[in-house]
Amino acid sequence: MNFFRAATRTSTLMRPAMNARAQGPMWARWLSDALRSQLDKDVKSKDIVLFMKGTPDQPMCGFSRAAVQIMQVQGVDFDKVQTFNVLADDELRQGIKEYSEWPTIPQVYIKGEFVGGCDILLNMHQSGDLEDLLIKEGIVPEEVAGEQ
Question: Model pTM?
Answer without folding.
Answer: 0.76
